[in-house]
Structure formats: structure tokens, C-alpha cells
Amino acid sequence: MQDELGDALKGHSADYIEIRLEESQATRIVYRGERLEEIGKTSSLGGNVRALVKDGWGFVSFNDVAKLQDKIELAVEQARLVGKENSKFSPTEPIVDAVTAEAKKEPATVPLASKKQLLNEYNDIILSTPKIQTSNIGYHDSQRKITFANSEGAYIEQNKLDLSLRLTAIATEDGQVQQIGLSLGSQGDFSTIEGLQDQAREMAQRAVRLLSAPQAKGGEYTVVLDPVLAGVFAHEAFGHLSEADFVYENKRLQDIMVLGRKFGSKHLNIVDGAAVPGLRGSYKYDDEGVPGTKTYLIREGILENRLHSRETAAKMGEKPTGNARALNYRFPPIVRMTNTFIEPGSVSFEDMLGDIKEGIYVKDWYGGTTSLEMFTFSAAEAYTIRNGKLAELLRPVTLSGNVFTTLGNIDAIGNDLQMNQGGGCGKGGQSPLPVSNGSPHIRIRRCIVGGN
Asked: Residue 380's closest CA among 184, 175, 176, 181?
């Protein structure tokens, strides 16, 4: 295959060309309440060609991998029609490598009937809980072999495994609706979603308890975020602002996201890194053949880096970070996060609560919006903090504010980093891309909480 792709890439008038071929197998199971809405296994084979000519891109995707020369010519012609300037594309060393993927219990070794039986157990537990009206369950696993070659001499074969599960319990009473969800994922280890019967039961019971919980009084509070919600904050509110294609195309964001600017105290470090091993967003090479890295976005409170593809790195005069990713062969790679997290500090959860006279503890999330530096997130659970202790359960609350002001108001970072590997990231029509995010508990002063 290496010789075949190498020959196909020769003889074309372009600044840069790459070929990506992909074979994949996937399983998907979806429940809505008692109804099994989807179950099945799929397989696909396809590829794409991307060509750069005078700063213009051509892109062709296909399911028939024959006649690659013709597909390359079509991509080159597309690029030639739109290209008008000198191409900007960071140089990298061409790599030749093969990457295998292994998991403790690969999903391919588990029969489809066994997967369905396990999800049936979880669904039965949720639906048998009094006052639970319905449930949502979504399971997905995949295994892919990706072959990448470019006109610079790179040739990389990567095998990737992925798995995700989302359980949701929805409770109703007297016209009220409350829900609690649980998201899990891994790099293809099926055992991570086994043995969740107790968690499914407790999750459903928490949803029911929310029906009778009081609502918080809206206002400004000292708030403690659990690792899940703090990780989502790091990803959604800040991580997307660090994706260089977003910065490059937005003058206002360029004025805000100036490298060297202070955004928090010395204890604040925010990282994105595919080179952090064992997580859903981890990989050895991105979809441009660039090695994955560990990139400090904020180090000791200072904005130090942003996330790049080869193109954005060249246009902004910075180094590629290995963050060019495509959902599959139907899409071109764009700048995406991988594993985004706030590094742990030294404060225990008990000490974090200890000097709060009146505050709110928030856990998990089930929605949110961002608009440049402004954000609003819905926490799935909330508890009153009173005199340094957790008190009564509250209805879900919203948190809102300016991300940069909020980063500056983080005054305590816990010692209990946890990574959330459920769900996925969406951008540019490519969703859900496997990522992870995480954080220790964090404490934020003067946070706006929505309630009564």
C-alpha cells in the first residue's frame, strides 16, 4: 500500500497533497424508554484527498478507492480554482510508522446480543424506579484502520478503538420534569461500562429526589464545581477559544487571546494533549501526520499557547501542535481539542468548602451555550454549602459569566483530578469527535447563579 499511495501522489502540480484511507466497523444501540430504537453493526471503506495550491484547498472524498490518480487530479483542480496567494503550511518531518491499538476487553470480542442484554439490565433498573417516566440510552463502539500518506513522504497506519455510553433517567411528577445522566467512555475497553447496575439505580433515585428539591435563590455566590462540570468549563468555555482557526478568523478574539496575557492566578494550568496516554482523545499522530503533543494553554495563569493545524501554525507564525482532526474520511481535518483539563492543585475538597459561609456546590451538566467569552452552563445537580459543609439538595442551576473574569476568580484548585471520557465534541458539522475533559474540584468566587 505504501508504494501504491506513493506512486499516486507523484506527478501533480500542487504545493501539498495528502491521501487518507479508512476502514471501519461500528456498533450502535439506542433506547428511548422501553423502545429499542436502533441496534446494528455497520462497516465502511472510503477515503479522501486534500490538495493545496496557492493557499487554496481542494477536497474530494470517496467510497471507491480505485483510480486514486483521478481523485487527486480533481482535488488539485479544485484547489487551483480558488488559490490566489502563496501557500502557508508549516514544514514537518515526514514520518513512516504503524500504530496498533489494544484494549483489555475489545468490543469486537463481545457479541451484539451480550451488549444488548447489558443495556437491557441498566434500562430495566432505571425504568423500575418509582416516578421515573422514561429513559435514554445510547451506546457506540468503533474500530478503525486509517492509512495516511502525503506528498512529502509520510506514510502512517493507525488503528484506533473507541467506546461510549450515555444513560439518562427522566423523572416526572405534577408536571415537573428532572433528569440525571451518566456518561462513560474509553479507548475501546468494554469492561469500563460493565457492572454499572448500582450506579444506574442511584442515578435514577437522584433524578427522583430532584423533584422535591427546593430551587436556589439567584445571585452571586462562591461556587465549587465538581470535576465533571469544571472539565466541561475548561473544554467548552476556554478550550474552543484556544483553537487557532477560530482565533485566526476572528479579529476581536485575536485582541483578547494575546499570548503572554494573564488570565488567572499562578495555581491555574490548563492543558490539552493527545500525548496524554490512555484517554479517548489520545493518539500518536493527528490527521495531518503530526505527532500528538501535550500543550499548556495556560501555564501559571499566563496564556502560553493555542492549538494548531499545520496551516494555522504557518499563518500565525507558531508551531504545529498536532491538533488537526477529522471525524472520518468524509471530512477534512480541522483544529480540534483532544484531552483538555485543569491540572490538579493541592487543596482538599473539605478545605475548599471549609471557609464558605454560604455558597453552592454544583455537579455534572446537561447543557450550555457559549458566545465568544460569554458562557451559560446548566448544572445537573446543586447543593447548598452552609458554614463549610454540604447541606440540602437543590434543583439544577445555571452558571453564567465571562470566561476570562471567571478564570481570574478561581481561588482554589483541588488535588483530585478526574477525567470525563463520555460524550463527544462537535464543530464544523463534525460530531461527535472522541475527546475527554477533566479537572479537580475548583472554587470560584463571585459566580453568577441562576435561580428564583
From this structure: 181
Provide the 8-state DSSP code for 63: S
Domain limits at 118?
Answer: 2-210
pLDDT digit string (tens) for 388-414? 999 999 999 999 999 999 999 999 999
Measured CA to CA in angstroms, residue 297 lies from 83, 205, 409 at distances of 32, 39, 18
DSSP 199: H
Looking at the structure, do residues 338 and 378 belong to the same domain, yes or no?
Answer: yes
| Domain endpoint, select from 150, 181, 210 | 210
CATH label of the domain that carries residue 47: 3.30.2290.10
Q: In sequence order, which residues have a C-beta less than 8 Å from that of residue 153 and are 6 or more positions away?
A: 6, 94, 96
Q: Which helix (H) or strand (E) holds 209?
A: helix 197-210
Q: Which of 120-129, 230-239, 368-377 has the lowest mean pLDDT?
A: 368-377
Contact of 325 with 416, CB cutoff 8 Å: no
Residues 249 and 372 in one domain: yes
Q: For residue 407, what is the DSSP state?
A: H
Cα-to-chain-centroid distance, residue 364? 15
**Residue in 153, 151, 162, 175 with CA at minimum distance from that of residue 26:** 162
Element spanning 141, H or E: strand 132-150
Co-location of 99 and 227 in the same domain: no
Could you give the CA distance from residue 136 to residue 165 in angstroms, rounded to a whole number? Answer: 11
Claim: this prediction has a pTM higher than 0.85: yes
My answer on whether 193 and 253 are in the same domain is no
Final residue in a domain of this structure, among 179, 210, 241: 210
Angle at 261 between CA 404 and CA 314, to 5 degrees: 105
